[in-house]
Amino acid sequence: MGALAQTLEAPTQAPTLEPISPPAHKPVTGKRKKWRPVKDQSKFEAQLDPGFAAEIAEEVEDGELLHQCIQCGTCSSVCPVSAYMDLTPRRLIAMTRAGARDDVLHSMTPWVCVSCYACTVECPKRIPITEIMHAMRRISLREKTYPRRFTTPVMTKEFVDMIEDRGRSTESWISMKLYLKTNPGLLLKNAKLATRLFRQGRIGVKRASIRHRKDLRTLLKAVSS
Amino acid sequence: MSSQAVSTRYTYFPGCSADGVGRAFTESLYAVFEHLGYGLDELEDWNCCGATAWPSVDQDQAHALSARNLAIAEDHQPGADPVDVLASCTGCYRALLKAQEALGTAGPTQVKLGRALAAIGLDSEGRARVRHPVDILLNEIGLDRIRDAVVRPLTGVKVASYYGCQLIRPFSTFDDQYDPTSMDRLVEAVGAEPVDWPLKTRCCGGSCYCGGPVIGAMPEATMQLSYALLREAAKRDADVIVTICPLCQFNLEGFQDRMSKRFGHPMDMSSGFVTQLMGIAMGIDERQLGIHRLLRWRLPVAPAPEPAAVGAAAAEGGDDA
Question: Over its length of 321 residues, how does chain B's per-residue pLDDT go in tens digits?
């Protein structure tokens, strides 16, 4: 009783409330680019597609493990580029299971993924997250929901076109095409480095090619028919 | 020196990057294998493995591309089982491994691939086995043979081995997934000192995806990631970073000037391929190893391979540490 009364006693001295000062602002050197966030997030249940998770699971080997996600966030924490994603991998999986099809397919995340498989290895539920990212890319390319001006979808298309045509990729050509389509300024910025590499014989102007180019086209047609 | 000449020859799949910007890797691999008494034959009319770009468009087509390479390798060695196909670039290694798995697992994909290969007059019996040159150096050629070939031990050179993403992920065939040591063992065998480096499997940046030296994809991310790797290596007193991926190697050496400007910290870290380091210890001509194709390469070892000079350099290296 006495102890309680003591604690309830009014403090002899009013506590001094110091305003919490915000941490000193550190200016970030250089320009920091903001990634475009998902603009129109699904707000109503009617906008959701309950079959989306099953659709993704079918595209990927062991994809049905997706349903077992425990939302631990390990994938997002080990991902080297999650800081640059608009939706972290953990969120992406949750949204997939919720059926937020539009948001997921419009997201930058699958295109920011660098396919390093860190998430796949660390996932306690062994969900093939990287392969799921690839599946999302496939669907968003098919349905043309990919971010148009972003480099990786452009790069993917250029790369695939080049291989379909010649069978091998030539780094100088593919870089050049990518720069012209996305950020021509980089052509100038990288000119010095490119000249050095050219002098060292590491990049060339000649496009590499295989001998049986027709075979390759037949092969690709035969496998998708 | 390898006194007993072994006439083992391997089929070698260079891939677009190890044939282009990472040309030095292919050159040094040929030189080192030859020096050890093994031979490499370039796979005839190989095509691109599809990298990670093709699975983003069509998974079956990606498998078919790699399957063609494996089928050609089998076609050229009719009796052999297994046919070892060496893929140096880690991206190619992973893509070919996946195709090997698809070809060897009964299912609709296997049927599709078989039909597609038949359309161009090839077939795969599943004899091809994809392997990485590091695996061959370690487990087939062996550290003893490598140690015997060293004429100029790189005593005192501190080396950070960088394994990159796809050599050991998503599954590993010959090394530990979390703490790989295969390259460290090779480095040790040639007399250098491997540095304990926790970032050895962390991603180096955008190039992993791009299939080319395209810092344009996500410049900021690439810079941040490689910067972390380089700073950590420098902090641990590494003289050089060695790797086995043409894209990682370029990514680590190519943008150090820009990083110095961007982060306000002078960067100067040599970066090369593990086979180049081994070649130098074996006394192979630097030109043959493609050292002239590197942007930064400085080893704290005297140029002449005389034992006295090596000793002096080693003492110098010791002082630095």
Answer: 444 444 689 999 999 888 888 999 999 999 999 999 999 999 999 999 988 889 999 999 999 999 999 999 999 998 888 899 999 999 999 999 999 999 999 999 999 999 999 999 999 988 999 999 999 999 999 999 999 999 999 999 999 999 988 899 898 889 998 999 999 999 999 999 999 999 999 988 755 444 334 455 677 788 888 899 999 999 999 999 999 998 889 888 888 888 898 888 898 999 999 999 999 999 999 999 999 999 988 888 765 555 444 444 444 444 443
**A80: cis peptide before it, omega within 30°?**
no
**DSSP β-bridge partners for residue B273:** B243
CA B127, CA B132: separation in Å to the nearest integer? 16
**DSSP alpha helices (H): ranges in A9-73?**
52-59
Length of chain A: 225
Phi-psi region of A62 (alpha: psi -120 to 50; beta: other; left: phi over 0): left
Looking at the complex, report in whole angstroms how far the Cα of residue A34 sits from the nearest Cα belonging to chain B: 11
**Which residue of chain B is at minimal alpha-carbon distance from A180?**
B216
The B residues from 227 to 266 touching A (CB cutoff 8 Å) are: 254, 262-264
Q: In angstroms, what separates the C-alpha of B4 from chain A's closest C-alpha?
A: 35
Cβ-defined contact of A151 to B217 (cutoff 8 Å): yes
Q: Which residues does chain A have within 8 Å of residue B112's beta carbon, measured at their own beta carbons?
A: 223
- Pick the residue from chain B with its C-alpha nearest to A181: B216
Across the interface, do B60 and A212 touch by the CB < 8 Å criterion? no
B126 and B272 assigned to the same domain: no
Give the pLDDT of residue B309: 46
Residue B11 domain-assigned (yes or no)? no
Cα A105 to Cα A95, A109, B47, B183: the distances in Å are 11, 9, 31, 40
Number of domains in chain B: 2
Q: d(Cα A210, Cα A206) in Å, to the nearest integer? A: 13
Residue B133 structure tokens: 């040159």
> Looking at the domain that runs over A44-145, which CATH code has it been given?
1.10.1060.10
In this structure, the answer to whether residues B208 and B86 fall within a common structural domain is no
Q: What's B193's domain CATH number?
A: 3.40.50.11810
Which tokens sit at B180? 């790989």
CB contact at 8 A, B153 and B191: yes
In a domain, B1, yes or no: no
> Cα dihedral angle (B86, B92, B94, B99), rounded to 10 degrees?
-90
Residue with tokens 């190989």: B46
Report yes or no: B43 and B85 within 8 Å, Cβ to Cβ: yes
Calpha distance A81→A146 (Å, rounded): 18
